[in-house]
Structures are given as structure tokens and as C-alpha cells.
Amino acid sequence: MSLKLTDVSLSGIARDRLHEINLALTKPGLVGVIGANGAGKSSLLKVIAGLEKVAHGEVVVGGKRLSDLNSKQRAALLSYLPQNEQAQWDITVTELLAIGLLQHSLGKQQRAQRLQKWLNYCDLTGLAERRLSTLSGGERQRAFLARALISEPQLLLCDEPTAALDIQHQLQTLKLLKEQSRAGRLVVCSLHDLSLAARYCDRLILIEEGKLLATGAPASVLTDTNLARAFSVSAEWFCHSSGVAWIPQPLSEGD
């Protein structure tokens, strides 16, 4: 799976704009989109998902121009998980996952096998007949993530998948996304926690005021210069066996 954005711009109010984004992702992996609030992270994901019409430029997914694809063709290539998604009806977990298959032509047996596969994978088997209103935040997030995965997309887009989760469920969610990237999917998600982004992501995309400030391996993106420009902070980084952690500091008046 490949993803390419060429001179992509999105008009709108200031916090929704994107300016001439050029980006090429050519192999599977977990890619984190980072930046300050209002930088354009959500807008970028919506553009890639085909939910926002660009004012200029082109988005190509798997060698196909996104603008040439209808909704069913897009659904065959990608899934999008919005931030803090809520169901319109108080349905069961199984019914929620079934919604993810509506645009896919599967026989009855294939559908049942697909449902069971992702219930098992996301540790939802014991919750299959529970209604969404009875689930904890972490359980509900797993259910929505399973619904996004059940179509088995080549490209998975997640907007703040760890938002409002406790640390245990943040780690659980990112571990699951990492596993999906290792299974051959391209996973692109926006994240706020830079320590988790550095630990789990293969590549980072740093957005500042609608512009691409930096992209590459976490160590090459999370530099003092980039942190100062995008977040107005400096940082002390600490390395350990399971990853890295950082302590942010406000910039001194002289910086």
C-alpha cells in the first residue's frame, strides 16, 4: 500500500486549512501525525479519507486517484476512525461490526467468519452481545476500532485513537495498531503524546499551522528546533529498553 499527496491544499477557517502538503508513504508501517491543537492533523486525515474536498492538489491511494473512486471503491481500500466516535443507536458490539461490512459483498458464512475473526482479535468475544452504552471507554474504543478493521483495509486512518483513554488502554490500542502495521497495513493516526508516538511509530508527520514541517523517523522529527517551532517547548529525552520518554519544558525567554 502506498499513499501520496501532491501539493494538497484545503481551504476553510484558519484551523482547518492545509497548505501545499507533499507527502509519500511507500510501505506498510505505523505513521503518527503530530502537531499542536488546530495545526491541521484532523483535516489531513479527513482529506486522505476522502471526507474533505481539496482546493488544490491530488491524493493517490494504492496508485489510484482518490477523486476517481466512488464510496464503495474507497471502502475497499481504506477505513477511517474519527475522534471520539459515537454510535447513532445503542446497538450491540456485533451489530456495530456488521456495519463495517455493509459495502462489502460477502456470503453469509464469510460474513460470520469475518465477524468472529475481529471479535477475537480485538478481545471482544465476551462483549459481542453487549450494547455500546454498557461498555467502558476502553471497551467501546476497541469495538469501534474492530469495526474499522473488519473490512480489512490496506490503509487505516485513526484520528486520536488514544484520546480519553487511560494509559493501559492507550498502550493496548497502540500495540494493536502496531500489530496491524506489521501485518502489512499502512496505519496513519494522529497522536498527542509524543513519548508514545516516538515509542510506537515507524515514522512521524509533523504539521504546523497547516503546513508540513517535518517527516521521517521519530528521532529526525522530534528535534529541539522542531519542538520549539511546533509546540513552543524544549524537551529532555530519556532512552530505556522499551522506548523513549520526554520531559517537556517551556522555552526560556531567550529562546
TrEMBL record:
Domain ABC transporter: 3-234
Key words of the record: ATP-binding, Nucleotide-binding, Transport
Pfam families: ABC_tran
GO MF entry, a single one: ATP binding
Source organism superkingdom: Bacteria
Gene3D superfamilies the UniProt entry points to: P-loop containing nucleotide triphosphate hydrolases
The family this protein is said to belong to: Belongs to the ABC transporter superfamily.
Name of this chain's protein: ABC transporter
Organism of this sequence: Idiomarina seosinensis
